[in-house]
Amino acid sequence: MATPPPGQPAGPGSQGAHPTPGASHAVPRHPRLDPLADRYAARTHGMKSSEIRALFSVVSRPEVVSLAGGMPAVTALPLDAVGSMIGDLVSGMGAQTLQYGSGQGDPRLRERICDVMALEGITDAHPSDVVVTVGSQQGLDLVTRVFCDPGDVILAEGPSYVGALGVFQAAEARVRHVAMDADGLIPEALEQALLECRAAGDRVKFLYTVPNFHNPAGVTLSEPRRRAIVDLADRYDLLVVEDNPYGLLGFDHEPMRALRARNAQRVIYLGSFSKTFSPGLRVGWVLAPLAVREKLVLATEAQVLCPPSLTQYAVARYLDTQPWREQIKLFTELYRERRDATLESLDALMPPGTTWTRPDGGFYVWLQLPDGLDAKLMQPRAVAAHVAYVPGIGFYADGNGREFMRLSYCYPEPDQIREGVRRLARVIEAELDLHSTFDSVDTGSFRAVGGAPRVPDVDPSVGPVTGDRFEDRA
Predict the structure, then answer these.
(1) Where exactly does CATH 3.90.1150.10 map onto the chain?
(2) I need a labelling partner for 377 at 20 to 30 A (CA). Which of 35, 107, 165, 452 fits?
(3) Residue 250 DSSP code
């Protein structure tokens, strides 16, 4: 049983217990802010807002250039056509679109999802293998619920998607990060982690990976490493959860062949229409083997009964009637222009010692600050300069990442990006000047003012992505 907060009674039902006659009644020194605090499940104790959600009130201010949130450029959609399409759905098929549906999802949508996955080499998928979800985030939550008990180990890239870390934390699983470099997850580091977990008696439930245009690192898993990771999965009886929201948004080449296309039994695939159509509709999917699919449907029914019918019909109608492949090409050209504006500005303006990744698709650049700087501690000064980013610490489960930040180029216009990078460069330069001044006077004073010692890299098999592992600018 969890130890109660200091000054609070122990044991179930103790909050309303009557005092023993003659006993003195102790009054807590501090009034309780939440009268239900001792009733929450243990899994809630570590819950906290993500670094991205915490920025929402800031980035909505018009004077702030936000390089923080990964919001797709939905204004590039043919909004009139989409609006008319949804209106026609409700007026013509209201009895179906406004009603309950199947826990597995609309059959027509599942057929079209198979068409989409075929673009990444998944040609053996059947609509019966697909479970429609409320965004791929729900899909990840369902997979974790089905597989993980408290204390189980999940292997995940370091850094990793902040939303996944929140799901794993809620499931009371332990995350062990595996190192990456410019070619994505390092197979040798993965094998080392598997061996060490086996030696320690840890139960590894699955590897979670974002192989294409990684969030937040922006890198893509190379073809040789895809083969190596699938081979490791076979050798070590490892399940792989492949999260692929960005796979069709490559700038320089055709979509890479998915891990799921290489092994249908070892890989569970998560997909989403949030990046290629609309995040507001919240439509994603899971492609899983039959036995897993059945459990996912049961978990869906327990959680939400069924995914929303209207949004499913809207996505299916969009895929049936709109030139969605051409729309994806339009998105990729738009994001390529914004990526280029970001990289050109970083090249021109960032002070020496700053390094970053050079993505060939997706939404993100992963930037490492000069030695000694802390992105989390620097954040208030950046907001005061009207520029926002996401500190890297939010993308690690182990407290690493303070010297990193994620920059998102998908939402601002190119001129806004250039101005945002200019403001950020000035903040970093000012931070370097501040640290230089206090370093020359007294290290203790330097730390008291708001600096923090650089978090050292840990063993490369489990450590964070470090700038010198990437092909970037020194």
Answers:
(1) 53-76+326-469
(2) 165
(3) B
Fold of the domain built from segment(s) 53-76+326-469: Aspartate Aminotransferase, domain 1 (3.90.1150)
* C-alpha span between 464 and 178 (Å, rounded): 8
Look up tokens 């799901």; give the residue.
167
Max Cα-Cα span within the chain: 80
Can you tell me the distance from the alpha carbon of 322 to that of 183, in angstroms, rounded to the nearest whole number?
35
Per-residue H/E/C for 174-236: EEEEEEEECCEECHHHHHHHHHHHHHHCCCEEEEEECCCCCCCCCCCCCHHHHHHHHHHHHHC
- pTM value is 0.84
pLDDT in tens, 263-277: 999 999 999 999 999
Among all chains, which residue has been given the structure tokens 């309950």?
100
Choose which CATH entry (3.40.50.720, 3.40.640.10, 3.40.50.920, 2.30.290.10) describes domain 88-322: 3.40.640.10
- C-alpha 189/C-alpha 303 separation (Å) is 36
Contact 288, 136 (CB under 8 A): no
Token pair of 74 as six digits: 């939905």
Which DSSP symbol is given to 275? T
- In 3D space, the residue among 246, 240, 194 whose CA is nearest the CA of residue 219 turns out to be 246
Would you state the pLDDT for residue 34? 83
Classify residue 276 by burial, with Cβ atoms within 10 Å: 0-12, 13-18, 19+. Answer: buried
The string of pLDDT tens digits covering residues 300-346 is: 999 999 999 999 999 999 999 999 999 999 999 999 999 999 999 99
